[in-house]
Amino acid sequence: MKIYIISNTFRYETENIVRVFFPNEKLEMVDIDSQNPVFREKPYLSTELSDTENGKLIRVNVCLKDYADEISDRVDFCENESDYLDEQERKTAICIYRLLTKYTKIIPPWGILTGVRPIKLFRRLRKKYGLAYAQSYFKEKLLVSDDKISLCTETEQNENAIICQSADNSYSLYVSIPFCPTRCSYCSFVSQSTEKTAKLIDPYVELLCQELIYTAEILSHYPLKLETVYIGGGTPTTLNAVQLQKLLAVIHQHFPMEQCREFTVEAGRPDTVNAEKLQVMLNHGVNRISINPQTMNDDILKAIGRKHTAQQTTNAFLLARKMGFTHINMDLIAGLPDESFESFQNTLSEITVLNPESITVHTLAMKRSSHLTAQGMNIVKENADTACKMHTYCRKILQANGYQPYYLYRQSRMVGNLENIGYAKKGFEGLYNVYIMDETHSIVACGGGAVTKLKNPYQDTLQRIFNYKYPYEYIDRFEEILKRKDEIRNFFCI
Question: Which of 2, 6, 229, 374 has its Cβ near the most Cβ atoms within 10 Å?
């Protein structure tokens, strides 16, 4: 499907809003000038802006195989150029939404919102104009459903209590372990299967420790406060106990862990969890782990490439609890291929019986680099309806069991254009999750694929430092990674 962008700059937003309605369609973006019209090849959608005496005229035209329609709107001139452009973009998105809702009969619960951080926008509006205005803006201007506005309101309130605990000099540390036992069919991360890359783990851990030591030395010269440490991936517990011991010892020796309020290790694959590794984590002050079933249906686990059973999930959880972990998170995914609503209900029932302190409910995202996408799986309306039903059920059941939503984010190509949302019992919210999604303070990141985000607390701007993605790149170009870390010195010397 071709998307013609005529005399406007709203290419990115136009593509995103069209993809909400046509998640499986290959979209080809074509920028053209109104003075040089071209033949528009069907099927297509076009957006065009033209000058009027008092502002801009927006015209959106759609011509599909069995449907053609057009809609227009106007934007009055505004002296504030940024506000003027924002309103043009918003009304263009509204026009696209109106046409495609009429054609597809799909009513996206997040309206025209396609961004990753809806809670951050909601908070900004609430702080500046008040809660009623934020809710009204989401409903009237962005066409967000009442259910999602209610979810935003509750989540933002719970998030805000955590954000207020961060100081101007706070930062968090992220450590990447880009290895997994196998690659899940829905995964788009750079994590590598240990079936192919096991020989890289030892040299990777050795260099990662060097990067951590180098980074800690840089940070030690500035009056900074370490709030949280998060070891993610991939699957950090892919490391054996000796490798894990070495990594955690370096973190403890070189970072001010006496300041750290939350130390998380993702133990995502139950088949990588054993008593020896759990003891290593306990010995080094890890106070939050995540054991992630995704589903408690063995057939679905096999279909998505996870070589463990539901019983192994239960066993790993009970072992961690027995050994003394008092904050265990568990991740679920709504909208997995062939997962029925009834199967999802059973998963949630089994998880709530285990009684973890927090539960994160993701929505399947059909990323371009995932095996599912490569295999040609499509998102259809029935998938979206089922995933939406799963989320509604989760909110009802989890809140009845004492869990409250505390952070939320979205991704592109999500089934039903839904969201990922974290629920927690009071006092067990994942602090790092909030800080990274809200971009509250600097996140200093080490390891393959890690991205350091340095936050200026006075200008609300971010400076990013990228590490090489894949383990072999990380190893081969390690000296360049250390050079890039020197940018931290320049940032904090400002």
Answer: 229
Count other Cβ atoms within 10 Å, centred on residue 486.
12
pLDDT at residue number 493: 80
Greatest Cα-to-Cα distance within the chain, rounded to the nearest angstrom: 74
Residues above pLDDT 70, as percent of the chain: 93
Q: What is the assigned CATH class of domain 1-106?
A: alpha beta
C-alpha Rg value of the chain to the nearest Å: 24
pLDDT recorded at residue 10: 95
Helices 146-163 and 431-438, packing angle to 10 deg: 110
Residue tagged 């200026």 (tokens): 456
Give the strand order in the sheet containing 170-177.
404-409, 420-424, 358-363, 328-334, 288-290, 262-266, 225-233, 170-177, 442-446, 451-456, 461-466
Would you give the end-to-end CA distance of the chain in angstroms? Answer: 48
162-487 classified as CATH 3.80.30.20: yes
DSSP output for 407-418: EEE--TTBGGG-
- Please name the helix (run of DSSP H) or strand (run of DSSP E) that holds residue 131, with its range, or none: helix 131-136
What is the torsion angle, in degrees rounded to the nearest 10, for the CA atoms of residue 206, residue 210, residue 216 and residue 221? 170
Instruction: Sketch the domain layout of the chain as residue ranges.
Output: 1-106, 162-487
420-424 and 404-409 beta bridge pairing: antiparallel
| Model pLDDT for residues 122-174, shown as the tens digit of each residue | 999 999 999 999 999 999 999 999 999 999 999 999 999 999 999 999 999 99
Q: What is the pLDDT of residues 167-197, one digit of tens each?
A: 999 999 999 999 988 766 556 555 555 666 7
Spatial contact of 211 and 446, defined as CB atoms under 8 Å apart: yes
Instruction: Note whether 326 and 376 are within 8 A (CB).
Output: no
Residue 480: phi and psi, rounded to 5, are -65, -35
What are the DSSP calls for 32-95, one per residue? E-TTS--PPPSSEEEEEEEE-SSEEEEEEEEEETTEEEEEEEEEE--SSHHHHHHHHHHHHHHH
Identify whether the C-beta of residue 183 lies closer than 8 Å to the C-beta of residue 305.
Answer: yes
Burial of residue 298, with CB atoms counted within 10 A of its CB: 0-12 exposed, 13-18 middle, 19 or more buried: middle
Q: Encoding tokens for residue 333?
A: 């995914």
The C-alpha angle with vertex 57 and arms to 56 and 59, in degrees rounded to 5, equals: 140
Integer Cα distance of 430 and 432 in angstroms: 6
Lowest mean per-residue pLDDT among 66-75, 178-187, 320-329, 410-419:
178-187
| Single pTM value for the model | 0.93
Measured in degrees and rounded to the nearest 5, phi and psi for residue 54 equal: -115, 5
